[in-house]
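Hi C.,

You asked whether I'd gotten around to modeling the 317-residue construct. I have! Everything is below, sequence then structure, no commentary in between.
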Amino acid sequence: MSESISHRENVLGTGEKVRIGSSSNFWLWSQEEGFDLSRTADLDSTTARDAIPPSSRLHLECQVSNVVLGSAKTALLIIDLQNFTLSRALRTGLPQEMFDAEETILKCAIPSARKAEEDLETLPPHQFRVFGWRTNTCDHAALHGIDFRDKHTASAGKFVHSGERQVKNAPGDDLGEVTLEDGRKVNAGRALFRGTWNAALHDPLAASFEESQKSPLPDGLFHKNRNSGMCEAMTDCTEYLKEKGIQSLLFAGMNTDQCVLATTFNAQMKGFDTILLNDGCVTDSPAFAQKACEYQFVNIWGFLSSCKALAEATAGI
């Protein structure tokens, strides 16, 4: 149930719309619908909105302002749900929230969205540091010396100087043989190398992907070796979306404040509409990192919605 907040000033009357953008790339805004991202009819279009098939306009409830999506121009992007990040054979102490997010994606986001070798020579040094080094603190609760209760990070002279240590986790490292939860042993392969078990989709998502290959609109799979799957070095996904005429993107996956956020940044810079599905996103960072991302998606970085809201929006299709 949504909560209504009274407006200090109503600029437009009922039924009036405002075009945002240019004649070739625009949104329509109204008090009734919020932001219409469907690009199906402009203000001066002779096409009546009622003549547009209802199934092509998806009303998605979001935090603060709702959106209308063009179902043929919308895609769901799921980031980094692979064995490397979600298999208990490789990682201990994984929080249940990670598997809850994956289950929500599988139950709500994917069905709704369907309804309507890596070259080490090209990897920059920071990618090796992200995966292959850890801070020399007892646990993640140390927050790398950053206290979320303080407005500013410590100034020079008060910085934490714990240093870092190298761990066997960087791209290209041999992860060796691991034992799965069912007792089977598999060769995990070199970390994050295409074609290895560790870089493959996590089993529940892999099963869903394979099932989609039998449908007229099969899911796509794009490999990346940067935080962002849509940066200048990673063009396959962007080219595919443009070829298909996709304009609005729904984001889910992990980690919210890392690879998901980086991809949304590049997507927005390339002109795509960006909507974060918060119950389908999760991170191993402190809780305030997730909250900060959600807060900014309410307005600055796009829109904030959920997988469950997407399922409700497509329930009648």
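If it helps when you're writing up: The chain has a mean pLDDT of 84.

Thanks,
B.
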